[in-house]
Amino acid sequence: MESESIVYGCIRDWPSTDPEQARVRRAINRRELRALPSGDAWPFIGRDMFSFCPQLGEGLYQTQVIHFGASYRAIEYEWSLWVEQFEALLKRLYWGSAVVHLETELSGSHTFRWESEQGFHSPQDSGGLLVRCAWEREGALHS
Q: pTM of this prediction?
């Protein structure tokens, strides 16, 4: 059996004092996530791996949190392709920060963080995806 990799994390929007602006941002994020491929059509990033609270209330106070997770067959060998697709999605969303956890059987756990230079990212930003990626590696404990 090949090794399994687990990928999970969240994308956070930023709180807004303007309820209409926040509603529009959530609607655009929801539309972009629903436009992702589903079923067998997604090699790395797909609609079925994402979830979020759709309306204000329990689970959605001021900041939209989009959470995601999936298991893969040894994704670390194609990690640059996964990150490329994830960053392409981030370019289409409203967000303030994103974190991705990668747990692998062979090379331990890694945490990747994206934070925009301005504190938020809008799909209308004409510049490239200006982010800082911090890489953390935790070694596996062996007894």
A: 0.86
